[in-house]
Amino acid sequence: MIGRPMLSYPVYYEQPYLTSLEATVVSLSSKGVILDRTICYPEGGGQSGDIGLVGGCTLVDTTKDDEHTIYHHVENPTFKEGEKVLIELDWKHRYHFMQMHTAQHVASGLLFSEFGIQTVSVHQGQSILTIETDALQIPLETCHLLEDLVNEQILASHAVHYEVHTQASAQELGLRRSIKVEGDGVRLVVVEDVDTIACGGLHVANTREIGLFHYAGQEKIRSHIRLIFAVGETARKMIRTAEAVAAELGTLFSAPLEELVTVATQAVEQAASDKRDLQKAQERIASLELDKRVQKAAMKDGVPVVVWDVDADLSLKDIGLAVLSYPDLALCAAKQDGQRVLWLIALQGRASELLDFPQAKQALLATINAKGGGKSPLYQGAGTGDPEALFSAFRERLA
Ligand SMILES: [Zn+2]
Asked: Measured in angstroms, how far is the CA atom of residue 105 from the centroid of ligand 1?
């Protein structure tokens, strides 16, 4: 290393529990800050980069490049090259990832040893851990059995240790997953009595530190099953949130937990049925209201002509539907909708011979600055202004 500065030497492998460390700034660039040594784990292997403070400035992410140089992404750094800075990890964030990572090894190990299911890829998010498997389906009972088995291993307090192997000696162990790194110095993570695998991530020192392992669901990805889990404090929060939601729904539906789904399903179905009934009733009212007006309507060449300033609680769509049951009808209806005026013109049957809407459209719509269209016999749209202006123009055309 003579003549070449140490580039963010990773102290975290030797001391994964170190939460703060003094380091010297080697360089600052748009790619990030390089320190002579660091406790910040860079994003990789399904684990997100560390966050915290560097020299009192916010560290938003840690990454590494292909040459294993670690970059600290610091917001508005106030320090300069050669200065000493204090690294302070967001320990809650880091520890949760160490818990999730260890839990993932235990779960993947048990999935393989107990159920013959291989892990294809893993991801540790802010709140959940996902394991993509090679299985096309995994029954719920298996997922719950796995959850129980992992929790048993947590309670069994297995130590987690590291071994460095040559490529040959690591291959001889016949691990469940092929070794992805080349050359010697293969770092193996051993969850004693449970799982051994090559991994460059950070883990807790004992399975009991995982605390709690919770199966939180599954989804299909590329035709395979991806399992979703929560770990530690996040798992407790997730379970408590689910309980609180279930309790609130129980109160809302006045049902005990075991009947909640049935009662809620019935309520949803009832609401849908009520909505359909309400729609039918509204259509019926629109039809009756139109009929009242048709009975009293002035006639033009044997065709009733209706002009209608519609109340807010009736819908022009329902009125349009009702028009279709008349053999001949000329209708101009409008209603206020906030700042807008909604309009409907219907020229049913012989009414189309009395008024050529496409030809009269521009003059009619100009009365209320309206736009719209449609096809015979129904035309509709929206404008602004006084609907009376449209009604007068319509009456004049049919006079
Ligand atoms: Zn790992």
From this structure: 6
Domain spanning 279-397: which CATH class is it, in words?
alpha beta
**How far, in Å, from the CA of 189 to the mean position of ligand 1?**
7
CB 309 within 8 A of CB 345: no
Backbone φ and ψ for 306, nearest 5 degrees, come out as -115, 130
- Assess contact for 119 and 177: CB atoms under 8 A: yes
Select from 315, 305, 389 the least CA-distant residue to 354: 305
Compute, in angstroms, the gap from residue 160 CA to the centroid of ligand 1.
11
**223 Cα to the center of ligand 1, angstroms:** 25
Tokens representing 115 are 């159920």
What is the whole-number distance in angstroms between the Cα of residue 205 and the centre of ligand 1? 12
Domains of the chain: which residue ranges?
A: 9-89, 95-250, 279-397
**Ligand 1: distance of its center to the CA of 195 in Å?**
11
| 330 neighbors 293 (Cβ within 8 angstroms) | no
Cβ(117)–Cβ(111) below 8 Å = yes
The distance from CA 58 to its chain's CA centroid, rounded to whole angstroms, is 27
Distance CA 261, CA 85 (A): 56
Question: CATH top-level class for 9-89?
Answer: mainly beta
Q: Which amino acid is at 298?
A: A
d(CA 361, CA 357): 5
Alpha carbons 222 and 330: distance in angstroms, whole number:
58
Rounded distance from Cα 98 to ligand 1 centre (Å): 8
pLDDT along the chain (399 residues), means of 10: 61 94 95 95 86 97 90 96 97 95 96 96 91 97 98 97 88 81 84 91 95 97 95 95 94 93 94 96 95 94 95 93 95 94 96 92 93 92 94 90
Of 115, 55, 50, nearest in space to 87 by CA: 55
- The correct answer on CATH 3.30.980.10 for the domain covering 95-250 is yes
Give the pTM: 0.73
